[in-house]
Structure prediction request, 229 residues.
Amino acid sequence: GAGVSQSPSNKVTEKGKDVELRCDPISGHTALYWYRQSLGQGLEFLIYFQGNSAPDKSGLPSDRFSAERTGGSVSTLTIQRTQQEDSAVYLCASSLTFGQASYEQYFGPGTRLTVT
Amino acid sequence: AQSVTQLDSHVSVSEGTPVLLRCNYSSSYSPSLFWYVQHPNKGLQLLLKYTSAATLVKGINGFEAEFKKSETSFHLTKPSAHMSDAAEYFCVVSGTGANNLFFGTGTRLTVIP
Prediction:
């Protein structure tokens, strides 16, 4: 079946512009995660959605970052007034559920964001 | 608190020789542990996972890892490297709460023909 998809695959934007990154999780997966991967770094957790519950935004680095998930499926990560330090690969993952020690997150290919 | 340390940022092996990627973890309880692989311009793919069953875990593509509680280690091995194994490998430990996966900084594996 189809995996997690993300769009666009690459995005180049000017400093100060807003960007929207999209994630389509695997159908039926209730949990959705956003991560950021900077050059030479591990993955940094950003935000998490579980079903219809309020998202956990504890990983968002600043109030310029926000995300929503419509209808429990597609999610959009928005970065306002982009800065050069926002340049990174943004990864989305989904899983069947949350809280199970043995669950697996399925990752999308990522969106490479470059802020010039 | 949970954390992961990948001891080598870069490992280089010759094709056909064994692979060893080292990982140590810290956890305040019995964790689940994972190894993910990331090929260039591809998403992360789960190689294997440990969830308190057998301590020697076999994964895809001939990889395996052994959970050693006394050493707090979860090293990834493969008997014979293949060119297609060249990628970035991440050791991951589970946590609690929303931020429930803690990733190491990765080990880049280079396979020399």
Observations:
- Chain A has a mean pLDDT of 89.
- Residues 7 and 13 of chain A are 15 Å apart (CA to CA).
